Each structure stands twice: as C-alpha cells, then as structure tokens.
Amino acid sequence: MIQLVHVTKQYDRRLALSDVSLEVQKGEFVLLMGPSGAGKSTLLRMLIGAERPDHGQVVVNGKNVGTLKASEIPYLRRKVGTVFQDFQLLVKKSVFENVALPLLVQGVSQTDIKRKVTEALRAVGVEHKREQLPMSLSTGEQQRVCIARAIVNGPVVLLADEPTGNLDPALTGEIIELFKLINARGTTVLVATHDPSVMTQVNRRVVTLVQGSLMPEQRVTL
Amino acid sequence: MMRTLFYLLREAWANIWTNRTTTVVAIFTTAFTLACVGIFLLLYVNLRAAAGWLQEDIKIMVYLDDRAVASTVSELDRQLRADRAVAALHFVSKEQALGEFRTQFPSDSHLLEGLGQNPLPASFVVTLSPPFRSPEAVKRWAERIGGLAGVEKVDYNQDWIDALSTIIRSIELVAIGIGLILSAAAVTIIANTIRLTLFARRHEIAILRLIGATKTFIRVPYLLEGAVLGGLGSACSLFMLNALYELFRHQMRTTGRLRGLEQLTMFFPLSICLLLVGVGIVLGFAGSFVSLRRFDEAKV
C-alpha cells in the first residue's frame, strides 16, 4: 500500500530524510516514532504529494507520487485521509460541514453526503455535535471531527501526524482506540508521533526515524 | 453537481460579504478607473460620429466629357447606380452647373460671359458608402470610374479626406492606448483585492488542498468574486458617466453659445453599456486569475 525506496529529501543544507526505505502492507497499522525534527512530517507530506523526494521512489496505492502531475495530486489525496495535531478544521463551518467537505469536493450527491457524514460522525462518537462549530468543542472532540473528516470518503490509507499531541493521556487512549477500530475495518493506518506513551498503547509494528534515518524495526507487544 | 455549484456560489458570496469593506472600496476604485476609460470612450464615440458626419459631406465629382452622347451618359448613370460603393448620386447638367456657379460666385459670373458658350461640364455628384470612404478606397474608386466611357475627370478633395482619416486614426489610437492602460489599472485593483481575500483564507485553502480539492474547485469562488467586482465596478462607472454626461448636456443647454450642440452628442447605446459591463466582468476575472496564479506559485 505504501512503499518508500531509498528516499532522500533535503531542505537547503538540512537533511530531512536520508535513504529511507519502508514498506507498509495493505491493512497494516504502523506507528512512526521519532523525536521532533526527525523527518516524520516530511515523510507523511511525501505520501500525500505535498513534498517530492530529491531521490528515490514514493508509491502510495500503486501510484508513484514523485512523478504524479500536479493535477493528479488531488485524486491521490481523496484516497488518503489525513489527521493533524492542530485539527485543521474550518472554524466558521459546522461539524457537519467540515466532515462533508471531502465529499463535496468530489461532487457526491446530497443524499450520500448526509448518509456518509452521519456514519462517520457516529463512528467517532460526535454525531450529537453535528450542528456545532468546532471552537465550541473540546480538543478531544475536535480531533474526533478531524478523524471523521479523514475517513468519511472511505480512504485506503489513513495518515495521522501527531494526532495526540494536544490531548491528555485519557483522550490519547480514546483516539488510539479509534484508529485501531478504523484499521480493523481494513484501512491502512500510519500514525506519526514523538510520544512514547502512544507506543505502549499500540500493539503494532513500530518504525523509528532519527535525524532522517530509519532505525531497525521493533514490534511492541504488551 | 448542483450542490457543488451551490457551495461554490455560497463561498463566493461569503468572500464578498466577509470582506465587504474591501469589496466596496474595490468596486468604487474600479468604477472610477473604468469611468476614466469611459470618458475617453464616450469622447471617442462622439468624435467618431462627428467624423462620420464630416465624411458624409465628402462629395466626389464625376465630370462628363462634353462629347458624350445621351446613351453613354445614361449607361454611366446605370453603372454608378449599380455600384455598391455608391451611397447617393445626383446628376448636375451643364446648365445647372452654370446656375450654381452664378449663385455661388455672383461677382465672378462675368468671367464666363466672354466665353460665348457654357464651359462648365455636366457631372454626377457621388457620395460613397461608409466602407469606401478611406483615402485608399476613394482613390481606387476614382481611378476605376475615371476609365469609364464618357468620364472626363473624377475630382475630390484628397487633402481633406487624408486629414479626416488621420484625425479618426489618431482618435482611435489614443482611445485604445488610454483604454489599455486604465484597463490594466482596473485589473491590478481587482487582483489586489482578491489577493487580500486569498491571504485571509489561506488556512482554508490549505485544508481544501489537503482533502483533495482540485485547483478549479478552489479557484471558482475567487474567480466569481473577481467577476462580480468587475461587473459591479463597470455598472457603477456607467452610472457615474451618465450623471456626468447629463450634467454636461445641462451646462451646454444653459450656456448660450453652445446651445443646440447638446442635441448632437450621444451617450452609449444599451448594447454598448452591456458590452462594457461584460468587459468589466472579464477584467475582474482576469484580476482574480492573476492573483490565483501568484498564490499558487507562492503556495502561501
């Protein structure tokens, strides 16, 4: 589902990724660990075509992202859901409108939008907040809305960049459980975090980036 | 599809409403700029009309050979009437020519007395159709007619036609030049307004990009906003111009020396007004497009 082959990325003189090779199978749940500045965000941004590798290949869902035309990137992103630490919600739009946005840009019918948004909101447990504005929600609820938006159009891959960075340990656990649930339904999940406590909550494959290089893998089993 | 369209229209309206102060300022600035274009256009239209009236006054004299028999003259008459370059034609006989000479130059009429016979030739006085009034066309037509049987000479005021043509061309060039410069100014004003909107909504645009919105989907609301700014600016400029025009006519009516001249002036006909609003929409669209291109390149 995701394949990075000898990927290198450099910003000016700073090496963000150095000869990174990684393969994530369909339906896998992978935790991408590493301290701040290790290159996790760069790697995730490459998977959605927001960055291009200087060297190497990035393949997502069978598409070579590095060679995609700018006009093809939006279609790749429709297959890849993204969740961010700062939620990236539109503050002037309701929860329903925020979650409906990925469907709206694809021209989905009104009936299907209602149905899919309701399902996604129910899946993350904030269906009762559908008419509220994001700023009136707690941080945990905002992150749930963000996840609902990422899964509403049934992506094949879900990427999360520090999704628990703004959450307390209890909420972190809830969000991780949500990711596990989404993964159980067949979506490939890649979660990037610097928080070691997340690792203890995820009984899955862990890859670690340090200063742009991938460390030997470990599997955490509790 | 309809929902997407409705969403894009709603977004365009939201942009306009959220930045209403900037929008109103942009509409009025655009209106003033386009009104300047309009003043020159109005001047051009009126001067062009005046030049057209002067061109109508240009008569071409086709003098007939005194030896031409009646059948030759009537054949020439038929040929001239069938000529698509000829808008109007009238025949002046030798006697009529003499009469006109005596009327126009009564003090010089004795000059013809000693000649015994009427030396003035019969002629056709021709007015050419508008497409055949350029100096080159008049010259070509005169050369062609000059070769016909029964024609002695074709005479017209070459200098006057050349001068008039130069004046019309100069007016056109000045109007086009000023129009282009001020249109560019209007595009810049609208582009800056849209740039402010884009900057204010950069966060939202970044989110739209991340969730898979195409360039078109992101751009349409801003292009619509630019078109609305341009269209409204153009409509406002027409109202301003019309008010100025009526004020000018009123001044002419009340100023004794220019009274009556106001009847000869004209405002833009409805078709031109609609065309100008259309031009405003296109300029607004262009302004938005310029800003969106820059925004895409900057990836703000």
Textual characterization of the structure:
The complex is a heterodimer of chains A (222) and B (300). Chain A has 222 residues and is α/β, with parallel strands linked by helices. Chain A has a domain at 87-154. Helix content of chain A is 33%, strand content 27%. Chain A is built from seven helices and eleven strands. In chain A, α3 (95-104) packs parallel to α5. The two termini of chain A are 26 Å apart. The model of chain A has no long low-confidence stretch (mean pLDDT 88). Chain B folds into two domains: 2-54 and 164-298, no CATH class; 59-156, Alpha-Beta Plaits (2-Layer Sandwich), CATH 3.30.70. Helix content of chain B is 72%, strand content 8%. Chain B has a four-stranded antiparallel beta sheet with strand order 2-3-1-4. In chain B, α2 packs antiparallel against α7 (158-200), α7 crosses α10 (270-298) and α9 (215-254) packs antiparallel against α10 (270-298). The model of chain B has no long low-confidence stretch (mean pLDDT 82). The chains are: A alpha/beta (222), B alpha+beta (300). The A-B interface holds A 48, 50, 70-71, 74-78, 82, 88-90, 101-102, 104-107, 109-110, 113, 149 and B 1, 3-4, 7, 203-204, 206-215, 217.
Gist of the model:
The complex is a heterodimer of chains A (222) and B (300). With 222 residues, chain A is α/β, with parallel strands linked by helices.
